[in-house]
Amino acid sequence: MELVAHNVTLAYEDVNVVSGLNCVIPPRQITTFIGPNGSGKSTLLRGLARLMKPRAGVVLLDGKEIHRSGTGQVARRLSMLPQRPTAPDGLLVRELVALGRFPYQGFLGALTAEDDRQIDLALRTAGVEALADRPLGELSGGQRQLAWIAMALAQNTPAILLDEPTTFLDLAHQLEVLELLEKLNRDAERTIVMVLHDVNQAARFSHHMVALSRGTIVASGKPEDVITADLMRQVFDIEAEIMHCAATDSPLCVPLSRSPE
To answer: Do 191 and 98 belong to one domain?
Structure first.
């Protein structure tokens, strides 16, 4: 699976949020976008997911312009979990996960034996099999997020894009979600692309990181190459000490103060 943004500009009405940006997503790795609010992280993710059409430039999926490909064709290659997904009241977890099979359904939309197999597998992989018959609205925040990830898994795509998948979750559930994504990458070689606010979690769980500021990429590469004191100052306007965490073999950022004006 190849996903590339080439000289892409993305805008809301007349305001460019991402300008002339080039980005290559490494296949079969975990890539995380970091940056302050308004830096263009979620906008870039939406552009890569074909949810926004570039004002200029192109997004290429497997060498083809993504906006010239059919919706079903793209939906078999990548799935997207937005920041605050919503579902109808009373929807059961299994019914939610079944929605992930939409790219494979025929005209009548009836589920096949293969659909049922993929749904069961997604429920089991996400660890929500026991919750299959529970209404989504009755679940905790962490359980709901795992159910949404199960829906993305049922779509059975080689790439999964997630916008802030740990937002509003406590630390235990944040780790549960991130460890699941890590497992999907390790065991099934899924390409994972996500937006995270916590730079230490991003460094811990990513192979590749992209730091954005004001709609441009400031740095990209391995976590140890991106998480530096200079980058924290340039992108986040903070002074920080960067250490090496031996337990996770990843950089650890300790914020010290806001940078002088």
So the answer is: no
Q: Helices (H) and strands (E) in the chain — how many of each?
A: 9, 12
Joined tokens for residue 106: 């025929």
Q: Tens digits of per-residue pLDDT, 86-133?
A: 888 899 999 999 999 999 986 667 889 999 999 999 999 999 999 999
Amino acid at 79: S
Whole-structure pTM over 0.90, yes or no?
yes
Is residue 241 situated within a structural domain? no
Which residues in 35-115 belong to E strands, given as ranges? 56-61, 64-65, 78-81
Q: Is 257 within a domain? A: no
- What residues make up the domain containing 99? 85-156
Give the torsion sign (CA, 146, 152, 153, 157).
negative
3-state DSSP assignment of residue 125? helix
Q: Which residue has the tokens 């100052």?
A: 233
183 shares its domain with 70: yes
Residues 189-243: tens digit of each pLDDT? 999 999 999 999 999 999 999 999 999 999 999 999 999 999 999 999 999 999 9
The answer to whether residue 261 sits within a structural domain is: no
